[in-house]
Amino acid sequence: MFIVVFAVAVMLVGAGLGMAADKEVIASPDAPKAIGPYSQAIRYGNMVFLSGQIPIDPKTGELSKGTIEEQTKLVLENLKSVLNAAGLTFAHVLSTTCFLKNMDDFPKFNTVYATYFPSAPPARATVEVARLPRDVLVEIALIAGK
User: Fold this and answer.
1) Which own/partner pairs from 6-10 qualify as long-range (CB within 8 Å, at least 24 positions apart)?
2) Domain containing residue 48: CATH number
3) How many CB atoms lie within 10 A of CB 24?
4) In this predicted structure, what is the pLDDT of residue 19?
5) Is residue 124 part of a domain?
6) 15 within domain boundaries
């Protein structure tokens, strides 16, 4: 019994030790650079986890103060750039988490969002939040798989 438990413990520890080596940072020069202790995306096995994007123009570094539609489009274009850096497209997206400053903007947000997922859209959670970084109207994070 002790030998079996010990063998399982060694396998679990060994699997944990390999975890960091299997983790790959994904970065796109066509999306805003990470401005804190996070990566634009992380690939782990066949999964890619994209950090939340806010509407920052990657060319200028300027924040978009536009409408919810304009901000949503810029966020999705930034996510598209990171997906491309990972060799993926929106067709690979499995789940999104969407944060809106005002749920009254949901219909306008949803109209833009739907154009990026014309068929087989991913699972999604959309919530209204009290405040987003730099007081933007929208932030979106996503998970993709290949």
Assistant:
1) none
2) 3.30.1330.40
3) 13
4) 59
5) yes
6) no
pLDDT tens profile 42-52: 999 999 999 99
Structure-token pair, residue 62: 């300027």
Domain that holds residue 100: 23-145
Between helices 68-85 and 106-116, what is the axis angle to 10°?
30
Output b/e per residue, 100-120; b: 16+ Cβ within 10 A. bbeeebeeebeebbeebeeee
**pTM of the prediction?**
0.86
Domain membership flag for residue 102: yes
pLDDT score at 35: 84
- 57-70: string of b/e by CB count within 10 Å (b at 16+)? ebeeeebbeeebbe
How many domains, the chain?
1
Total residues found in the chain within this entry: 146
Tokens read off for 63: 């924040």
Q: Look up tokens 């789940």; give the residue.
A: 95
Q: Is residue 9 part of a domain?
A: no
pLDDT in tens, 131-145: 999 999 999 999 999
